[in-house]
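From the pipeline queue, job 12 of 40. The input is one protein chain; the requested action is below.

Action: predict structure.
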Amino acid sequence: MVNNWLKIIQRNLIPPRCVLCGDTGFADLDLCAGCLGDLPRNLCCCYRCGEPFASELALPSLCGRCLKRSPQFDETYAPICTVTRCRI
């Protein structure tokens, strides 16, 4: 209940602004709808390191690099692919 009030106050005092272009935020995010739609999604990637695969796979898989030498962590959550034009 308290968190909800804090969100309401924050939304009214400091409305969300897109960190990429400065427009009004979308759905309480600090991204506008246009920039959110332009971000490349990392839908099919290695579940260990987040490296995007060239083609879509049915099951979670490891890339060749992780199969050859496993990193020191178990899993990566990488919803946005930053290998492309997502540099500021």
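Job complete. The mean pLDDT is 83.
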